[in-house]
Amino acid sequence: MDLTVLPYKCKIQEHYSGGCQLETIFLNKYLEKLYKEAKKNRKYPLSQHLIDKYIEVIDFIKAADTIAAIRSRRSYKFEKLVGYDSRYSIRLNKKYRLEIEIEWTDNKHTIGIFRINEISKHYE
């Protein structure tokens, strides 16, 4: 199934696959608030375009049924961070990355719990 044509909401994906398998947990309360309210705050003075992209990425993660769906979206440049066991990044734009930790729930590393950690500037 091609997730690029589906809406990002998890409940839509549940209709097609029988349930969401990639759970998201926010480790950062500011990022959780940013996701829920979709507006700027003092902790993360980001552009509205970047906030919209962040929300799109979180919604896509919630809608995905395996890690392969996220890897298939080439524009996200999903990659493991060097020097960390379970930390990964997803590109928001050329300047910013969403850093996440993944707790794998299967041995093949295809399904897991995504812990949303921070938005960081790339190369800093």
Describe the structure.
With 124 residues, the chain is α+β, with helices and mostly antiparallel strands. It is built from four helices and five strands, in the order H-E-H-H-H-E-E-E-E. Strands 1-5-4-3-2 form a five-stranded mixed beta sheet. A hairpin with a 6-residue loop joins strand 2 and strand 3. Helix 1 runs parallel beside helix 3. The longest helix has 16 residues. The radius of gyration is 14 Å and the shape is globular. 20% of the residues are buried.
Overall outline: globular
Provide mean pLDDT, rounded. Answer: 81
* Residues in β-strands, percent: 15-25%
Number of domains: 1
* Number of strand segments: 5
CATH class: Alpha Beta
Rg, rounded, reads 14 Å
| Number of helical elements | 4
Structural class by SSE content: alpha+beta
CATH fold-level assignment? YaeB-like fold
Regions with pLDDT < 50 over 5+ consecutive residues?
A: 1-18
Beginning-to-end CA distance, first to last residue: 37 Å
CATH architecture: 2-Layer Sandwich
So, the CATH homologous superfamily?
A: RelE-like
Helical amount among residues, as a percent range? 25-40%
List the helices and strands and how they pair.
Elements (H helix, E strand, L loop, with lengths): L9 H8 L5 E4 L2 H9 L10 H16 L3 H6 L6 E2 L6 E5 L4 E9 L7 E10 L3
State the main characteristics:
globular, alpha+beta, 124 residues, disordered N terminus, 4 helices, YaeB-like fold, single chain
